[in-house]
């Protein structure tokens, strides 16, 4: 991740943009209270970090001074809040998509390097008020008026007037939306524009210039009182300095206000979406339109769109670190486990992130009525941290002011001791102070930053805060996601490997150019796995739309598999109905596989069918047999070698490769009444039958190679972060220029020198 001088955070490029997130300090552990199963921390409150997808920062010590514990809690809450974190926001556009750069919560990195965790908090003007807020926060934590986690599903349906199968009707949802308002947090109280303007007028170095103006006029007044014919030099000096300060302040205010308005319009362009069941259909709607009683589905990577009571869960884990203080992912289930709603496992909280798995839940609170909404109302109204250049300017002001005043006082004392008149000595003091103030500094800095911002604007990069230009210029490394950022996130099935052969896939509507035998027994098994081990679904009401243009609810990879299956096999949803799903383990980054168990559509076969897909090497290690020409054969060295040859060839094309396998569970061990438990995994996940490989291609964005070249010429190292196999990652990196034509990877060096990869000197 990128480490910038003065910014202890990281810069990463994701499908929605580039995010630099500052390290969030965590408080030392509080006293623990007993729990029947395992100890845990007392719940700690904060506002959840935005985006999910940002990595959790490592904790560092936090200084505890003489402030009261309640004030410390309020300060900590501010530090963790959404408004306390962001001080700078950039947006830049790369046709055809808009990307955003966020630089958050800056801090002096030198203090962190020395292990100095002291923090100075500003903006907490009324300690008594903040103590009252903190007392209210503790009440929210301990006495939440929430009982949905204790109710049965039947009672939930009665209380919220909904049905867990069909959801709310559209009419009822519209009625509740009008009654309760949108599912969004009320924005924090904004700083009045006049206050923003005055801050630009008197903030930073401007205060020294105003001091120079005032001292100039005071000097003239003293001299005029002694001699009315005194020249107007000091008046002219003050009259020149004052407009300079006003103009630079006005210019900076205008730039900030203009950028803020543009960014506010951008934030409305891509609203957060939620997958909801209404009128017995799955629909994707803006999360602001969610109402109490809605049935929503979430999956790994999603932000929970409201406070929800979980109705079902498959390997669901959430990040509640900023809400309860639990640093590890917390598992979620539909079981009531604690009287405290913050501690029970069957509640998901608005703005927390689902890390892995899937879950279905009922909305029980929206907007400001959510737990995080109540916290946010108490956390608003506190100021932001300063950027590195602002800190340096403030430090410079202190030095200049100290030197100027010190020299002035020293020479004043010398002048008085030499029997000079006191008034003349005072004028001498003021003159020395004025002489040590660099009057052109403020205007020079503002002009330089403004010109830089204008040049960036021509490159479709919007600067909200002029001071942040210097921070962005310190970027040395950009860590970029692959899918959807470097690539188009438009997966298409490209090749298949089964029966020891590689086939090119044809995704045209008539699939007339299909190169493999669709009557093959291996293809029949592979196509069934592709169809069943897939959570993607077509959006309803698209019967007349061509298959490849249909809108799909699901991620890019599963979308490609669904469309491919629909083209080859026909009605995929009907096939799924005939092979009802019994249990499922969703894909996660730890297991790197997805598994589901189904009834079969053969009335004479009472066995359950377990299907699995995932990273090819993970799938292969779970298999003991392989299907060749419709027959299972032992997985020996020759077939394993054929697998790795095909895998390497497809991955070398820059394609994402998935492996597929299955297993029919014996009817005597797994009867129709058998209860599958995905938490304890009371079914076999080894000795499966490997069926085949399928590869998908995600073309690189056309503008990426040029962007990478420009970054490299600017001295910025671009790193691609991906969970794909190294072979695939290497091919994609070469296609976009991250690995240049003249560069060698560790594997290339090992191959050239004919040595093991471990023996290569990586430094």
UniProtKB/TrEMBL annotation:
The keyword Ion transport applies. Keywords: ATP-binding, Hydrogen ion transport, Ion transport, Magnesium, Membrane, Metal-binding, Nucleotide-binding, Potassium, Potassium transport, Translocase, Transmembrane, Transmembrane helix, Transport. The keyword Chaperone does not apply. It is found in: Cell membrane; Membrane. GO terms for molecular function: ATP binding; ATP hydrolysis activity; metal ion binding; P-type sodium:potassium-exchanging transporter activity. It is a multi-pass membrane protein. One of its GO terms (cellular component) is plasma membrane. Pfam families: Cation_ATPase, Cation_ATPase_N, E1-E2_ATPase. GO terms for biological process: intracellular potassium ion homeostasis; intracellular sodium ion homeostasis; potassium ion import across plasma membrane; proton transmembrane transport; sodium ion export across plasma membrane. InterPro entries: ATPase_P-typ_cation-transptr_N (IPR004014), ATPase_P-typ_cyto_dom_N (IPR023299), ATPase_P-typ_P_site (IPR018303), ATPase_P-typ_TM_dom_sf (IPR023298), ATPase_P-typ_transduc_dom_A_sf (IPR008250), ATPase_P-type_domA (IPR059000), Cation_transp_ATPase_P-type (IPR050510), HAD-like_sf (IPR036412). It comes from the Eukaryota. Residues 1-67 are annotated as: Disordered. The chain crosses the membrane at residues 201-220, 235-254, 396-418. Its main location: membrane. Belongs to the cation transport ATPase (P-type) (TC 3.A.3) family. Type IIC subfamily. This is Sodium/potassium-transporting ATPase subunit alpha. It comes from Trichechus manatus latirostris. The gene is LOC101351555.
């Amino acid at each position: 991740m990128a480490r910038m001088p003065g910014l202890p955070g990281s810069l990463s490029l994701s499908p929605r943009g580039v995010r630099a997130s500052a390290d969030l300090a965590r408080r030392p552990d509080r006293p623990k209270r007993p729990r029947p199963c395992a100890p845990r921390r007392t719940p700690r409150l904060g506002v959840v970090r935005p985006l999910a997808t940002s990595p959790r920062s490592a904790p560092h010590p936090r200084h505890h001074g003489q402030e009261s514990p309640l004030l410390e809690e309020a300060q900590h809450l501010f530090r963790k809040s959404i408004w306390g974190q962001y001080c700078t926001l950039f947006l830049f556009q790369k046709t055809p998509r808009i990307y955003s750069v966020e630089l958050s919560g800056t801090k002096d990195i030198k203090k962190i390097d020395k292990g100095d965790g002291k923090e100075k908090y500003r903006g907490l003007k009324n300690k008594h008020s903040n103590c009252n807020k903190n007392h209210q926060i503790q009440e929210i934590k301990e006495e939440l008026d929430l009982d949905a986690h204790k109710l049965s599903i039947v009672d939930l349906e009665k209380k919220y007037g909904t049905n867990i199968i069909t959801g709310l009707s559209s009419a009822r949802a519209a009625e509740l939306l009008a009654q309760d308002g949108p599912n969004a947090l009320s924005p924090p109280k904004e700083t009045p524009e006049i206050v923003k303007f005055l801050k630009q007028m008197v903030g930073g170095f401007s205060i020294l210039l105003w001091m120079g103006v005032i001292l100039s006029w005071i000097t003239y007044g003293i001299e005029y009182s002694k001699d009315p014919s005194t020249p107007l030099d000091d008046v002219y000096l003050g009259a020149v300095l004052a407009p300079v300060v006003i103009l630079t302040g006005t210019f900076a205010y205008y730039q900030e206000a203009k950028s803020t308005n543009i960014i506010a319009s951008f934030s409305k362009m891509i609203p957060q979406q939620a997958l909801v069941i209404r009128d017995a259909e799955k629909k994707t709607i803006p999360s602001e339109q969610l109402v109490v009683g809605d049935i929503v589905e979430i999956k790994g990577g999603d932000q929970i769109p409201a406070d929800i009571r979980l109705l079902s869960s498959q390997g669901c884990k959430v990040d509640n670190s900023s809400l309860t203080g639990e640093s590890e992912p917390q598992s979620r289930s539909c079981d009531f486990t604690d009287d405290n709603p913050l501690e029970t496992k069957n509640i998901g909280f608005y703005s927390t992130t689902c890390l892995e798995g899937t879950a279905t839940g009922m909305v029980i609170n929206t907007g400001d009525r959510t737990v995080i909404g109540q916290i946010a109302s108490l956390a608003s109204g506190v100021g932001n941290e300063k950027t590195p250049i602002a800190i340096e300017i403030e430090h410079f002001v202190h030095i200049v002011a100290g030197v100027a005043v010190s020299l002035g006082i020293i020479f004043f004392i010398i002048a008085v001791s030499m029997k000079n008149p006191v008034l003349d000595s005072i004028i001498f003091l003021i003159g020395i102070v004025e002489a040590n103030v660099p009057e052109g500094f403020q205007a020079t800095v503002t002009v330089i930053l403004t010109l830089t911002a204008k040049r960036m604007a021509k490159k479709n990069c919007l600067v909200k805060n002029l001071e942040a230009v210097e921070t962005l210029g310190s970027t040395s490394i950009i860590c970029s996601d692959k899918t959807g950022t470097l690539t188009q996130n438009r997966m298409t099935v490209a090749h298949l490997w089964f029966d020891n052969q590689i086939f090119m896939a044809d995704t045209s509507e008539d699939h007339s150019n299909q190169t493999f035998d669709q009557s093959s027994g291996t293809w029949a098994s592979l196509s069934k796995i592709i169809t069943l081990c897939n959570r993607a679904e077509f959006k309803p009401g698209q019967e007349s739309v061509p298959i490849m243009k249909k809108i799909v609810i699901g991620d890019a990879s599963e979308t490609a598999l669904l469309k491919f299956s629909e083209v080859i096999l026909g009605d995929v949803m009907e096939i799924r109905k005939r092979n009802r799903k019994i249990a499922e383990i969703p894909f996660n980054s730890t297991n790197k596989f997805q598994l589901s168990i189904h009834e079969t559509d053969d009335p004479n076969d009472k066995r359950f069918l377990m299907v699995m897909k995932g990273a090819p090497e993970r799938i292969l290690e779970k298999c003991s047999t392989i299907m060749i020409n419709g027959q299972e054969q032992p997985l020996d060295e020759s077939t394993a070698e054929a697998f790795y040859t095909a895998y390497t060839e497809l991955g070398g094309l820059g394609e994402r490769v998935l492996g597929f396998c299955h297993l029919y569970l014996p009817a005597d061990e797994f009867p129709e009444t058998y209860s599958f438990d995905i938490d304890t995994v009371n079914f076999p996940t080894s000795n499966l039958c490997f069926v085949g490989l399928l590869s998908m291609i995600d073309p690189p964005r056309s503008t990426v190679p040029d962007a990478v070249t420009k970054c490299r010429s600017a001295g910025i190292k671009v790193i691609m972060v991906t969970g794909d196999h190294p072979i695939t990652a290497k091919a994609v990196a070469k296609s976009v220029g991250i690995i240049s034509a003249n560069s060698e990877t560790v594997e290339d060096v090992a191959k050239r020198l004919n040595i093991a990869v471990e023996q290569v000197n990586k430094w």
